[in-house]
Specification:
The chain has one helix at 144-151, and strands at residues 2-4, 13-16, 19-21, 27-30, 32-34, 45-47, 54-57, 67-71, 82-86, 92-96, 113-117, 124-128, 192-196, 200-201, 206-214, 222-228, 234-236, 241-242, 248-256, 259-266, 276-285, 292-304, 310-312, 317-322. The protein is an all-beta fold and 323 residues long.
Length: 323
Amino acid sequence: MTVADVDFDGKQEIIYAASTIDDDGTVMYNSSGVMPAESAAPGEIRRIGHGDTLHVADIDPDRAGLEIFMVHEGASSVPYGYTMRDAKTGEIIYGAYIGKDTGRGMIGDWREELIIRTADSSALRIFESTSVTDHKLHTLMHDAQYRAQVAGQQTVYNQPDYTSYYFAGDTDFSQVKVLDFWTPLVKQASSGGMLSGPHAVAPGKRFDLNYSLKTTQSDVAVQDITISYDANKLEFIAPPISKDVKKIMVTSYEEMPGKVRIWIANSSDKHKDLNGNLIKLSFQAKQTAEPGVTSIAISKLVNTNSLGEESLLSGSSHEVQIK
């Protein structure tokens, strides 16, 4: 068993032999195949079965997404002795019927070793490189998938850990943006203006954020809110909308490159305790946006009270991973 974000929604799925379980606990798929003529049940459709070793990584850089390579120990009672399948759909990319238990495997660290059996098959000889590498790269623990897989080492059989990006001798590590790693609640203020919403989005897709006030006792008559974002990665695509017109009205807004300025006015008979979601902000990740983490921030929040007095309130930022 291991974990990986196979559908790129920012949440880890559980890969359990032939099955993959989504982050909400539902089964995404159970991989299966047709039993070959030389098997114990020719023509039957059976699951690919158990194996003590599986590898989840970007094995083939020419294919989109992750792949799962696995060996199977069902011998003649399963359709394959080994398979590589699409991690998102469970589709078999390739595999072969062996008819024997091949449910074991071997893996080292990220530097290649040469493993050779002795002539009488009584032992293995492992040869490793003593050369100094000329690659400079981030630590593997900066990658979310690698960290999650390391954390899962205390569950069932140990499995090798992999990064979520293609990792090989021909990798251009200058293009691996793993330092843009998102962790929940980073840069969130304890009070004042807050942004909340999804933490992952695909290029070309829309997402909405909520602007809210949290644990503030300020007298609110009017607010002047400036939201900043990376215009190379995101677009502001729709007018801001009040979440509750009985509390707040959006009086006007102005768009600028990488910024949107919004004015809201209190429409209730209470000037205090306006905590909660107030307006909806609609963004879209650009189709050309490179994978990585981008930040949307309340860069300025001016509050005007019922006496006409202005003050600055704290604001937060919200990070979204484009993948």
